[in-house]
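Hi support team,

I'm filing this because I wasn't sure whether my run with adenosine-5'-triphosphate finished correctly. The job status page said complete, but I'd like someone to confirm that the output block is well-formed before I use it downstream. Pasting the exact inputs I used:
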Amino acid sequence: MKISPNHPRFRSLETRERLVQGFQSGIVASQGLIAQGRGEAFDYMLGEVTPKSSRLATKAASALLLGAKSPVISINGNTAALVARDVVKLAHSVPAELEVNLFHRSLARERRIASLLKRNGADRVLGVDSKTKVRIRGVASPRRSVDAQGIGNADVVLIPLEDGDRAEALRKAGKAVIAIDLNPMSRTSLAATVTIVDNIIRAIPELLRITEKMKPLSRSRLGAIASSFDNEKNVARAMKDMIHYMQGWA
Ligand code: ATP
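And here is everything the job wrote out:
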C-alpha cells in the first residue's frame, strides 16, 4: 500500500509497510511482525525520537566497534528489511563482517537476506550455508550456531533486535555486545555491554554518522570512551526518558 508522506504517522506506517513487504518476500519471519509491535509500543513512550541516553550509548558503541579487532554485525530478517543499506554502510565504515543469524532459521531465508545485503553493497555475508560453524554455549535456539570466522571469532558483536538468551551467552563467551532494543527492560538490554534504546530505523543511521565522526580518534581514546560507559546506569536513564515523556501526557 502506498502511504502519503503527508500522513501524520507516515514514518511509522512506512516502517510497517516495509516489514509486511519483507514478510511477503520471505525476508521477515511472521514472529518478526509481532516483535515490531512490541517495539512500537516502547517507541511511543519515547515520543518516537532518539533520547539523550541513546546518544551516550551510540558514542560508546562506535568506540567499541572502532576499537575492536574482529567486529561483527549480526543480521536478522527485521534488520535486513528495515535498514539493509545503512547496515552495509556501517560494516564498510568500521570495517566489520556481516553475519546472518536467525532465530526462526531456514536456508532459503538466510540466502534471501544475504542477497538483499549484497544488492545493497555488501561484499561478503557470513552465516549462510557455512561450512565452518561453531556453537555458542547456553543458547537453546538455532541461533547457537555461528560462523567460526564471524561471530565465533568476534571480540565485539552488534546484535540489533536480539533475544535475551543469545545476548547473555555471547557475553559469557567473553564478547562485548552492543544491542539495539526499544525495550529497556528486556533481558537483551540488561545483558548487553552497551544498549542503544532506540528504534533501529533511527539508531543505525546515527551509529553510522557517529562512527564516521569518531574514526580519527586514537585507540586509547576509543578505549577510554568505551570503558567509561556504564550500561546499567544508561538503561535506567532510558527508562527515565520514557517516564519523563509520559509525564507530559499525565
Ligand atoms: P528478551 O529475550 O531480550 O527479553 P524479547 O523476548 O522481548 O526479548 P523479542 O520478542 O524477540 O524479544 O523482540 C525483540 C525486541 O526487539 C523487543 O524487545 C522489541 O522491543 C525490540 N524491537 C522490535 N522492533 C524494534 C525496532 N524497530 N527497533 C528497536 N527495537 C525493536
